[in-house]
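LOG
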Amino acid sequence: MNVKRQTIQKLKGNHFRLTGQRRAVLNAIANTNEYFTPAAVHEKLREQHADISLVTVYRCLNILYDLGIICDMRTTGKGRSYGKCLTGRYALIVCNNCGKTMVYNGSGLNKLAQQIDTEIGFSVENKHITLNGLCPECRANKDKTGD
């Protein structure tokens, strides 16, 4: 069963109607692997669905978040950012300059958690961390301008 169909069944199973506006929001986020803000989803929908307000998008995304369909990535201080829920241990890597967000899920994260446990006896339970810095493009621009 595909993710979209599972999402629709989960909405209906929790007594939420699948309105045209909710369907439009689902379609807007269904095929993306990137992180998105409510404003970005609203902007994407405005051309074909002028009747959808930003408040409606926020409400729909909050429902999807409450049902565990999307996760709050809290990647920047610029408001909420959502993405598909990831499994396993991963790091969100966020550019301080442009806000671009990438995911790193290499084995180094498990080694880091084990090292923390060994060195200080702290059992890491969180599955993700956020690292901030400069993406390759912003780093190259900074190197060019000397800032």
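LOG (cont.) second protein
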Amino acid sequence: MNRPPIPPFTSETAAQKVRRAEDGWNSRDPAKVALACTTDTRWRNRAEFVNSRAEAQAFLTRKWSRELDYRLIKEVWVHAGPRIAVRFAYEYRDDSRQWYRAYGNENWQFDANGLMERRIASINEHPIAEADRKFRWPLGRRSQCIGSLRPWPGPGSPPGGRSSSPVDGKTAEASRTMRRPSGARSRIGLRGRRRQHRERLGRVEANPVIRIDEGGRDRAALGHDEGSRHRQ
């Protein structure tokens, strides 16, 4: 059974493959999604392992029985040959009406027929207020007119995920620390630059992980987020 697009992928066909996968997951139909995989597909989803198409369908059935009103955006990160790396974000609520937003990345590998034979997914999530939801399209397929994940959804972004606020790896303060006016460097001697370098190293050691929370404030995350939950 062919499942186009088939590898090796181009930028265009990789994007088509990811969009079709997104549409399948937004259908919340476990059987439909599982049919896009080989019969002996192997997954790692967080800490759970799947070793067949039947197990993948059972996993998705459990997932969507807990993750209600599920809405997802996937995008290509990079591709080569039969492999595609994807980043994604999704929102859902539980049966107590608590909402969550999850961020993650996954690595896919396909056979010659375009069926998924490997899926490795790493995901983090945190609770959000209903008012802070970003993904509000009607359940099902995301319309093409709804935004993307460039950059990740952040404070002030409209439904669909567009944001003018970068959160990929650097806080605004870190960016200001690293950037200097072009003329400033010429006025600082070698000793001064070495001293600034040592000061920056000291800040990194004191704050090993920095992230921006949903309010846009710098926050040290030492080890793990207090509000995060680890689910399937």
